[in-house]
Amino acid sequence: MTTVLDTAVHLFLESEMESPRVLPVDFVDSHRFGAGKPGHLVVFSRTCPDKDEPNDDSAAVIRLPDGALVMAVADGVGGAPLGYKASAIAVQCIAESLQDRIDGSDLRPAILDGIERANAEILDMGTGAATTISIVEVQNRIARGYQVGDSMAMIVGQRGTMKWRSTSHSPVGYLIESGAIEEAEAMLHDDRHIVSNLVGSREMHIEIGPAIPLAVRDSIVIASDGLFDNLQLGEIAQLARIGKPLDRMNALVALASKRMRGEDHSMPGKPDDLAVVLMTP
């Protein structure tokens, strides 16, 4: 199901996409990539193969009247009650908080307030539901990430350079960050399904990333662990930077789906719901 609150907000809740959706090119501020060259936004979300329950992943793309852009992916905790509802609450609270913001003001207070609202609402449900969320704001050619859980985001340069990536809030994610294990080992780790930080927890904490100046050819990927648990970071960086925007997303989805189905014998796969937001030049 895709919900459009107004011309500036697109929410993707319980989505079952057969193919990625390309948002209108004028949805991305032309000043982001240079005069006369608006960027592109592509979104994909669908349920895990052979899963009967609703898609626990939600996504949001919000363009504010002053040209600022906010993108988010939330992944409701699998196995917990109403994971799909928790992820929907998270992206809806972000959208609502941003709509209350004064044009031209700092995005950070509105984003943090949205996450905190979501945490309170999910806790008030009293069902044990929880979700991750990964957010990237883009304003005046500066990007900044916000993170709770193991949905992740990354900024990739034209030549595949990793300009920035978030850290997965999980035991395995912290092991990778510390250099204790390699990515390939992480994909086989017994604890890769464990998440250390969630929206819907009284111990929730929000990680705020650094301000990253964006170059003309930079791409941004925000996704649930359906992508990041099936592809290595270098693979994502390469696929996200080459070709037309729709071709890039199709390549990411195709490889993740192949591994989820166990058809890539060179690499392990983890069946899961999948949501990806891709911003490209």
Automatic annotation (TrEMBL):
Entry-linked Pfam families: PP2C_2
Leader sequence residues: none
Uppermost EC category: hydrolase
PROSITE patterns registered for this protein in UniProt: PPM_2
Domain (PPM-type phosphatase) ranges: 41-281
TM segment ranges: none
One Gene Ontology term of the molecular function aspect: protein serine/threonine phosphatase activity
EC number per UniProt: 3.1.3.16
Annotated keywords: Hydrolase
InterPro entries: PPM-type-like_dom_sf, PPM-type_phosphatase-like_dom
Name the UniProt record assigns to this protein: Serine/threonine phosphatase stp
